[in-house]
Amino acid sequence: MLPRDIADDIEKFQMIGYAEEYFKTHRRGIFKRRIQLEKLIQYHPDPLQTSLLQLSDEEQTIEAVKIYKVILKFIGKGPTEKTLLKMSDSIGKAVIVAQLRDEIYCQVIKQTTGNPHVNKRENGWRIFCMLLEVFCPTQDFEYYVLAHFEKHTNAPDIGIYATYCHNRLKHLISQPLQIPRKPKIPTLQAAIEAPFIKSVFRSTIDDIMETQLLEGIDLNIPAIFNDMIEKIRLLGGIATPGIFRIQASMSDIALARSKYESREYDHLEITDPHVYACILKIWMKEIYSPVIPPEYYKDFVDNSKNIDALRTLVENLPIANRAIIKQLISFLRIIAQEPSNRMGTENLSIVLSPNLFRCPEESPQLVLLATKVETETLCTLISLY
After folding, report:
1. In this structure, what DSSP letter does residue 23 have?
2. pLDDT in tens, 296-311
3. pLDDT over 90 for what percent of the chain?
4. How far apart are CA 378 and CA 376, in angstroms?
5. CA–CA dist 233, 83 (Å, integer)
6. Model pTM greater than 0.85?
7. Which residues pair with 53 in a beta bridge?
8. What is the rounded CA–CA span in Å between residue 161 and residue 164?
9. HSE-up (13 A, CA, CB side) for residue 305
C-alpha cells in the first residue's frame, strides 16, 4: 500500500484530470480554485440538483438525481428489504445506461469523503461492495476509484471494506470486461457480507491454503478444487454432453458457491454436474492469483507446442499450483477420451483456457490474439498427464 499522503496526492491529481474532461460546472465553475472541486466531491447531506458528471442528455441527468436520492436513503437507513430493492433497481438502470456507472461511483465517493457519521460511512462502503459485484467504473475513471479505496485501507472503521474493495477492483481491472446484469437481492446481500468472509474464491491460492490449514485441512491442494473435481466425477460429469461448455442453473451455482464459502461440502440437493463444472471455471477466474502465475505466463505460451518444456515448467510451479494443474489436466484428459460427452481436447481447451490463463496485455486486440496460443498450450498440456 502507498503512504496515505502520497495516495491522497495521486487521488487528487487523477480526479482533477478526470474532472476537467467529465465533470459538470457547478455554480461558479469547479476549476477557478481547486477547493471548489474538493467541495464538489465532499460529503453533503442534501440531494443533488443535477448530475455530478456531464451526461449525454437531460433524461440521464434526471435519472442520476433520482439515483442519488436512493443512495442517500440507503446511506441513512442501511440495508433493509426496501433499500436493497431500490438499490437493485438503481444499479440495474446503470447496467442499461453505461454513462450512469461512473456517475454512481462519483456519488458514493461524495458520500464517503469527509462524512462525519460512522454508520453512514459504512453504508457508503457497502454500496461500493454492491457496485463491484455488478460493474466496474470505466477505464477513464477506474484508477481514481482505486486510489480512493487505497486511501481508506487503514481507516479504523471502514478499512476492512476499503481493503476488500481495493483488492476486488484491482482484480477486476486485470480481467476481460464482463457484460453486467441487474443484480438480485441475494447477490447484493452477499456482496455486503463479502469483506468479512475468508473467501475461497476471492483470495490468493496461498491464502486459501493457509486458511484451510488453520481449519484443520492438511492437503497440498485447495480443498474446494479437489471437491469440485470429485463432484463432477461422482455426478457422472465425465460422460455428460457439453461438460464445461453448457451453462448451469444460476440459482444452483449461487447455492453451491454459498455452501463452499461456508465450508459446507455436502450438497445433496444439487445433482447436475454442470453446476460444478461452471463453479470450477468461476473459481479459476476469480482467485486473485492465477493458477498459472504471471511470471510463468510468457514461458508457457512461448512453448505452446513443446511438451518437454511445458513438463519442466509445470514441475517448477509452486506446490499448490503444480498440484492443481496436474489434477486438472489428468481429469481433462479422462473427459477428452470419453466420446459420449462430445468434449474432445480442443473443445475443452477452448472453454477452459480463458479461466486458466490470464494474459497480462491490456489491449483487447492483443488479449484476443493470445487466446489462440493459450488454447494451443492447454491442448499440449492435456497430452502430458
Report:
1. B
2. 999 999 999 999 999 9
3. 77
4. 6
5. 42
6. no
7. 23
8. 5
9. 2
